[in-house]
Amino acid sequence: MNEVLKAIEERRAIRKFKPDMVPQDKIDTIIRAGLYAPSGMGKQSPIIVAITNKAIRDRLSEMNRKIAGRPEGFDPFYGGPVVLAVLADKSIVTHVHDGSLVIGNMMLAAHSLGLGSIWIHRAQQEFECEEGIGILKALGIEGDYEGIGHCVLGYIDGEVPKAAPRKEGRVFYAR
Question: Tell me, what CATH number does 47's domain have?
Answer without folding.
Answer: 3.40.109.10
